[in-house]
């Protein structure tokens, strides 16, 4: 939409309600506003459907991309299952820290490279490889339950998962003006979500297996993860 005005208005209010009620509450619409030679980005969601252009700020944009990162990790069930599978093979907080740090460094690297359009891989290849990473870790948990996951495994698969994280930013087609800021806060949202998942899941796993002595619990989880990994692989690869 393009409008010509005689002078810059003090305030412009835009309301967006397409798709939310009748079609898809999870729909999001990326909006790029260009006015007076300046550009800003805004995301319309089910919860936020009104934009006052006169009140847009850096904090508003940063908050939106942080929330977008949080939503992406909590709705990225393949990423969640991969992290949970890594936790199953961990026994100490130090080991968890090593795994998550390795995974974070790797996926941050490829997230930045892919978003900046320096390195690109076919979506089908990336999504299939993410499913294979889940299958590998689940099989290791089932057949080698006493063997710890090495940080280099988390690091190697983190590169692949980073390309998956970059997919949503690529779809938004961000402008170069605020790309670095958007990428930073999107990534912060992902990391906060990941920390929350680890903080909730690991103590729960330890409590059930150590305190309640439920021996079949972890093998059952790994089997379920393997099942989902196989389904995703065949859906994405073929």
Summarize the structure.
The chain is mostly helical and 238 residues long. 63% of the residues lie in helices and 8% in strands.
Describe this structure in words.
With 238 residues, this protein is mainly alpha-helical. It has seven helices and four strands. It has helices at 58-75, 77-88, 93-115, 123-143, 151-172, 179-211, 217-237, and strands at 13-15, 29-35, 38-44, 50-52. The two termini are 39 Å apart.
Itemize the secondary structure elements and their pairings.
Elements: E1 13-15, E2 29-35, E3 38-44, E4 50-52, H1 58-75, H2 77-88, H3 93-115, H4 123-143, H5 151-172, H6 179-211, H7 217-237
Antiparallel strand pairs: 1-4, 2-3
Q: With helices defined by DSSP (H or I, 4 residues minimum), what is the helix count?
A: 7
What is the strand tally? 4
Q: Based on CA inertia axes, which overall geometry fits?
A: elongated
Order of helices and strands: EEEEHHHHHHH
* Unreliable parts: none
What about the largest sheet? Answer: 2 strands, antiparallel
How far the N terminus sits from the C terminus, by CA atoms, comes to: 39 Å
Radius of gyration, CA atoms, in whole angstroms? 21 Å
Percent of residues in beta strands? Answer: 5-15%
């Amino acid at each position: 939409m393009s409008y010509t005005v005689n002078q810059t208005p003090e305030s412009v209010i835009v309301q967006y309600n397409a798709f939310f009620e009748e079609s898809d509450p999870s729909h999001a619409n990326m909006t790029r506003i260009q006015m007076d030679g300046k550009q800003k980005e805004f995301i319309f969601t089910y919860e936020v459907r009104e934009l006052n252009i006169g009140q847009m700020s850096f904090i508003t944009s940063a908050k939106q991309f942080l929330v977008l990162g949080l939503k992406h990790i909590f709705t990225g069930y393949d990423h969640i299952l991969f992290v949970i599978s890594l936790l199953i093979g961990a026994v100490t907080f130090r080991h968890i820290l090593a795994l998550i740090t390795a995974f974070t460094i790797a996926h941050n690297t490829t997230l930045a490279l892919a978003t900046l359009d320096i390195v690109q891989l076919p979506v089908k290849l990336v999504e299939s490889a993410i499913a294979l990473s889940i299958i590998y870790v689940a099989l290791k948990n089932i057949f080698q339950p006493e063997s710890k996951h090495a940080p280099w495994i988390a690091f190697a698969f983190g590169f692949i998962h980073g390309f998956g994280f970059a997919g949503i930013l690529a779809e938004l087609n961000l402008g170069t003006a605020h790309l670095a800021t958007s990428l930073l806060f999107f990534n912060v949202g992902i990391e906060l979500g990941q920390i929350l998942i680890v903080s909730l899941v690991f103590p729960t796993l330890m409590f059930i297996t150590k305190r309640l002595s439920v021996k079949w619990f972890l093998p059952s989880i790994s089997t379920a993860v393997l099942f989902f990994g196989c389904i995703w692989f065949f859906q994405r690869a073929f």
